Amino acid sequence: MVQVTIADRSQRVRSRLAATAKADALLVSDITNIRWLTGFTGSNAWVVLYPDGLTLITDGRYGQQAAQQMAAAGVEGEVLVGATSPLVVDHIAQCCDQFARVAFEATHVTYAQHAQYVQAIKSELVPATGIVEAERRVKDAREIEMMAQACRIADQALAEVAPTLADGLTEAQVRNHLETRMRELGAIGPSYETIVATGPINAALPHHRPTSTLIESGHTVIIDVGALVDGYHSDMTRTFFIGEPTALQRELYDVVLAAQRAGVAAVAAGISTKELDGVCRRIIEEAGYGEWFTHGTGHGVGLLIHEDPFINRAGDTILQVGDVVTVEPGVYHEGFGGIRIEDLVVVTSDGCRVLTASPKDSSCLPSPPTI
Ligand code: ZN
Ligand code: ZN
Fold first, then answer.
1. Is the peptide bond before 210 cis (omega within 30 degrees of 0)?
2. Which end of the chain, N or C, is less packed with Cβ atoms under 10 Å?
3. What is the pLDDT of residues 58-92, one digit of tens each?
4. C-alpha 190 – ligand 2 centre gap (Å)
C-alpha cells in the first residue's frame, strides 16, 4: 500500500514560501493547488496557509465535504463557511490579518479580486508566483500510481478500439467508443476531449475536435486519448494509417518515431526542457520537416492535463526526479494530414519510466480497410 502524503505537502510549501516570498502566510486561491494541499475536490475555496496550520474557507455547499475530505487526507485545519461572497472575503481577511505580510498567488487572482483583498485585508499583500506549483510538480508514489492506472485504462481502450478504425467509422464515433470504454474500465471520464483527427485536413490540426468526418483509406488518423483517475490525468497519442501507407506517410512516421524515441531516451533529471525539446526537434529538422513540427515537445501532467514543466524551445526548467511529462513530437501539413506520437513518462533517479504501454512501431497498424 502506497503511503498517502497529503499532510506533508503544506510543510513543503511553507519552507518554499519562507525561502522565496519572505511572507508569513500564503493565501491560496487556485482550486487545483487547494485540492493538492488539502484533498478537497469542490469547485470553490481559498486556503490561508500559516506557519503552524491552515484554514480552508468555502461557501455553504462545501463546508461538510471540505471537513470530511481534509480529515480523510490527514490534513489538520479549520474550515470556515461564508454564506455569501462578502462573508467569504471577511473570513479570508480575518485569517490574513494576524500576519504582517501575506503572499497571494499573483497568476490566479483577478484584478477585481485583488481590489477586494486590498480593501478587506490589513496585512501587506505580496505577489508570489508558482510557490505551490513548484512543489506540486514533484509527484509522490501515490500520484504516479494514479497516473499509471490512467495510462493502463487508456492503453486498454485504444487496444480495443484501434482494430475498428478501418470499419467505416466517423471521428466522433471513435471518440465515443474510446470514452465509453475508459469509463467502463474504471476511469472517472476522459482526461480531456479525446482527439480523433483523420485525413489531409483534420489531421493537420494538432488539436482538432472530432467531427462526423469518415475515416477513409489513405488517411493518417491521430488519436490523442487520456483517462482521469482520482483527479489525475494520462495523455497519449498514437497515429494509424488506413490502408497501405504512402512513401511520404511511412517516411514521416519513421522520422517522428525516431524523434520521439530519442526524446524519451533523453528524459532524465538534470536535462533542461529546452535541451529535451532540441533532441526531438533536431531529428525532425535534419529530415527536412522542421517547419511541420509546430508545437513544443511536451508538458507536465498531474491534477491538470497541462502543467509545469512545459518542454519547448523557450523553456529553461531543469527536469527533476518526480516530474511526470509527455514526449510528443509531431508533424502537420494541410494536404498531408499529421502524425504525432506521445508517451507519458516519469523522471526517476536513473532516467525515466515510461507509463504508456501502447505499441508505437508502425507494424502495429490496422489492416487495410474493407470499405
Ligand atoms: Zn495528448
Ligand atoms: Zn500532451
1. no
2. N
3. 999 999 999 999 999 999 999 999 999 899 999 99
4. 13
Q: Report CA(237)–ligand 2 centroid distance (Å).
A: 8
Closest C-alpha to 56, from 66, 64, 65: 66
Centroid of ligand 1 to alpha carbon of 240 (angstroms): 15
How far apart CA 241 and CA 362 sit, in angstroms, is 9
Provide the pLDDT for residue 366: 52
Question: Domains in the chain and their CATH numbers?
Answer: 6-136 (3.40.350.10), 141-364 (3.90.230.10)
CA of 299 to the centre of ligand 2 (A): 6
Best CA proximity match to 50, nearest among 101, 91, 88: 101
Which ligand lies nearest to the CA atom of residue 222 in the structure? Answer: 1
Partners of 232 in the β-ladder: 229
Distance 240 CA to ligand 2 centre (A): 17
Q: Residues with Cβ < 8 Å from 104, sequence gap 6 or more?
A: 26, 27, 29, 114, 117, 125, 126, 127, 128
The alpha carbon of 206 and the centre of ligand 1 are apart by a number of angstroms equal to 9
Cα angle, residue 314 at apex, residues 313 and 316 outer, rounded to 5° = 105
What is the CA(208)–ligand 2 centre distance, in A?
13
- pLDDT recorded at residue 2: 43
What is the number of the ligand closest to the CA of 340? 1
